[in-house]
TrEMBL record:
GO molecular function, one term: G-protein beta/gamma-subunit complex binding
Keyword set, alphabetical order: Cell membrane, GTP-binding, Magnesium, Membrane, Metal-binding, Nucleotide-binding, Transducer
Main location: membrane
Gene from which the chain derives: LOC102376477
Subcellular location per the Swiss-Prot or TrEMBL entry: Cell membrane
GO biological process: G protein-coupled receptor signaling pathway
Native species: Alligator sinensis
Superkingdom of the source species: Eukaryota
Signal peptide location: none
Protein name as annotated: Guanine nucleotide-binding protein G(s) subunit alpha
Subunit and interaction comment: G proteins are composed of 3 units; alpha, beta and gamma. The alpha chain contains the guanine nucleotide binding site.
Length: 82
């Protein structure tokens, strides 16, 4: 396994890593958002107006293409709180 900042990557490898990183971020936030309601006690959103973003995240779970903006919005203030 190579590290991004050690020994470098060629252009094609960089493009592939971007896709891998985006998928990993999506998978992680889908896991977090899906688990929030199953925890005891459940973890609420700090800002209930973000519910539509949580719904979007859950809907894209099986997809490979998605809008990263909704994920970014949930990772900042108003997202999951615990």
């Amino acid at each position: 396994m190579r590290i991004l900042h050690v020994n470098g990557f060629n252009s094609e490898e960089k493009k592939q890593k971007i896709l891998d990183i985006r998928k990993n971020v999506k998978d992680a936030i889908v896991t977090i958002v899906s688990a929030m309601s199953t925890l005891i006690p459940p973890v609420p959103l700090a800002n209930p107006e973000n519910q539509f973003r949580m719904d979007y995240i859950k809907s894209i779970a099986p997809l490979s293409d998605f809008d990263y903006t909704q994920i970014r919005s949930l990772c900042y203030p108003g997202g999951p709180q615990g």
